[in-house]
Amino acid sequence: MAASTRITEELINEYFSKGYWKNETTSGVWDHHARTIPDREALSDSKYRLTWAQVKDMSDRLAVALLGMGLKRDDPVFLLLPNCVESYVTRIALEKSGLFCITALMTVREYEIEHVLKTYDVVAVFVPTKFRNFDYFEAVNHMRAGLPRLKFIFVMDDSVPAGAVSLTEMMKADLPPRFTDHYFEKTRYRPTDAFTAGLTSGTTGMPKVAEYPICSIMHMGEGYHLMPKLRPDDVVLNVLSAVGGLGRPFCYVAREGARMVVQEVWDAQQALSIMEREKVTVLLSAPAQLSLLIQQSNLGDFNLEPLRAVCCSTSVLGKEAIETAEAKLGANVLNAYGVSDGGIISETTIDDDRETRSCTVGKPFEGTEIRIVDDQGNEVPAGEEGELWFRGPGTSSGFYRDPDLTVKTWGALGKEGWFRTGDLVRIDRRGNLIMTGRKKDVIIRGGQNIYPAEIENLLSLHKAVRQAAIVPMPDPIMGEKACAYVSLNDREEFSFEIMINHLKNWNVAPYKLPERLEIMNELPARGHKVSKVELKEDIIRKLQLEAKGPLNV
Q1: Domain with 66 in it: what CATH number?
Q2: Could you give phi then psi for residue 313, rounded to 5 degrees?
Q3: Nearest 5°: phi and psi at 359?
Q4: Angle at 446 between CA 157 and CA 471, to 5 degrees
Q5: Which of 162, 189, 216 delimits the end of a domain?
Q6: Percent of the chain at pLDDT above 70?
Q7: Lowest mean pLDDT, pick from 130-139, 207-216, 292-301, 405-414
Q8: β-sheet bridge partners, residue 199
């Protein structure tokens, strides 16, 4: 996938001439540190503790092994690994071997997995055998008969089931005699090549994948590094996914040579132990994880003195949450604002004052252009609310194999395109963006997007359901959760248990499942559409009555 869907030669020349893009790659940065600081520790999890030289050696061996199995440049592969060392090494190896890398979070299930494998002609998939009580190998292996393009299932566990290939053993494969870095000269992706694409739910219910060129990932990484002013002596704990969101550019663009620690499965108590043991100075987390961390009653039992910054992404933190976290952790809490299918937009930094950090999402990152527009696409007066459009060198290059959706989302290919976020913002007198609402019909649960249309369409397939609407309900930990409102056909029965079983039969990812059901005789309507405004007001009233007071969110 050397050519990007949206990025034109004109944009490439502009971004290089202005210094936003540079002639470097992610794997090149990692290899550079392997030559200059080979014995310094680079990466660790509960299983591995690797130096920069060891990371290079493992990624080289894996890349050679992949090419030796007959995989060809630009073959699409699906990387579905948890936040672990193997995920980092595999990503670097895929860039070296020239394999197009499609990624997703570990919360996806058969519904999303099969769609990706079929739609994008995936030739190889990388999975754990089992992870958090779900058998990924069995799920993919069960689909194999209907996937003629799928050649390999690579598993990272020590126990390798029949029909799978050991990723661990491939990282130990023999290198060719007199091996040098030039071995990958013909296969390694170039800086302007689209190398990776992340799964993102579509508003119509079908998952899409947003592609990114390496230069864009590098530029995003530069932006995220500026948040805490990352230093070579920093120790970064990443509790996010290593393959998507803030975890991807922050930790893959390892320019400063800082040491990185990753937590495979989120657990607040374990995270505190890691932070104390490893003397963590920078924490990467989602708002939901940070909320759980600061609610730990024994927070004071841990020595977190080295911690100087917490960088949050996937959803925007509120003022109260930031101020509480800063008071309890003794570190600045920073917001990164972007969208998974669009790219980086803005961020707060460690040099910003408390008001900026707690009340805004900071200034647009270097090179990022923004427009704040009304419903007709006209720019609103300064200080007024409108929908945010943006473009720049830290953006996606469109949707993989879908130029029509790319044009629909961006308005045009190339220089004239603007990504429509669906977010409502205004800009303050100092140039900081302030989030005021959401125009797009999307629920953000703990940083993961739930598009109501997807669940509504599946609920409408149940014989009991006449109408269905999914709306957000506030939650102090996750930010939002999904609430289902339904009206029923005559003489039909429906319950929360029936609803969940129905959706599970469609193999819907668990995070998308509604966490409350409200049944009404008729859903409120405005014209021919369900009035979600009224439903949102209804669920808030119900929650307030149950809490016997205002909601603390």
Answers
A1: 3.40.50.980
A2: -150, 180
A3: -115, -5
A4: 125
A5: 189
A6: 96
A7: 292-301
A8: 209
Rounded Cα distance between 95 and 116, Å, is 20
Question: Beta partners for 49?
Answer: 44
- Report which of 245, 238, 243, 284 is spatially closest to residue 261, judged by C-alpha positions: 238
Does 273 reside within a domain?
Answer: no
Looking at the DSSP assignment, which residues form a beta bridge with residue 356? none
- CA geometry: angle 85, 89, 94, nearest 5 deg: 145
Judging by beta carbons within 10 Å of its beta carbon (0-12, 13-18, 19+), is residue 63 exposed, middle or buried?
A: buried
How far apart CA 29 and CA 422 sit, in angstroms, is: 35
Please, what sign has the CA dihedral across residues 201, 287, 354, 310? negative
Distances in Å between the Cα of 475 and the Cα atoms of 49, 449, 540 are 37, 15, 11
Burial 499-510 (b: 16+ CB within 10 A, else e): bbebbeeeebbe
d(CA 22, CA 15): 9
User: Domain end: 130, 158, 189, which one?
Assistant: 189
Residue 183 lies in a domain: yes
Side chain identity at residue 69, one-letter code: M
Give the residue with greater pLDDT, 327 vs 447: 327
In single-letter form, the type of residue at position 523 comes to L
What is the pairing mode between strands 259-262 and 235-238?
Answer: parallel
**By residue range, what is the domain housing residue 89?**
26-189
Number of domains in the chain: 2
Residues contacting residue 365 through CB under 8 Å, at least 6 positions apart: 223, 344, 345, 346, 347, 392, 394
d(CA 461, CA 71) in angstroms, rounded, equals: 40
**Mean pLDDT value across residues 46-72:** 97
CA pair distance 437, 457, nearest whole angstrom: 25
Residue 91: name the closest of 120, 62, 67, 69 by CA: 62
The DSSP-derived string for 352-399 is: S-HHHHHH---EEPTT-EEEEE-TTSPBPPTT--EEEEEESTTB---B
Average pLDDT taken over every residue of the chain: 90
Looking up residue 486, the CATH number of its domain turns out to be 3.30.300.30
**Secondary structure class of 171 (helix, strand, coil):** coil
Mean pLDDT confidence for 439-457: 82
The arithmetic mean of pLDDT across residues 281-294, rounded, is 86
Rounded distance, CA 107 to CA 111, Å?
11
Name the token pair of 439.
């125009």
Tokens linked to 509: 């990812």
pLDDT range class, residue 441, cuts 50, 70, 90 = confident
* pLDDT score for 31: 96
pLDDT at 204 over 80: no
- DSSP H helical ranges for 69-166: 85-97, 110-119, 136-143
Question: Would you say residue 146 has pLDDT above 60?
Answer: yes
Q: What pTM does this model have?
A: 0.84
The pLDDT, as a whole number, for residue 244 is: 73
Radius of gyration for the chain, computed over Cα atoms and rounded to the nearest angstrom: 23
Residue 370 domain-assigned? no
Average confidence (pLDDT) over 55-62: 98
Q: Integer distance in angstroms from the first to the last C-alpha of the chain?
A: 43
Least Cα distance to 124 among 87, 151, 161 occurs for 151
Task: Answer yes or no: is 452 within a domain.
Answer: yes
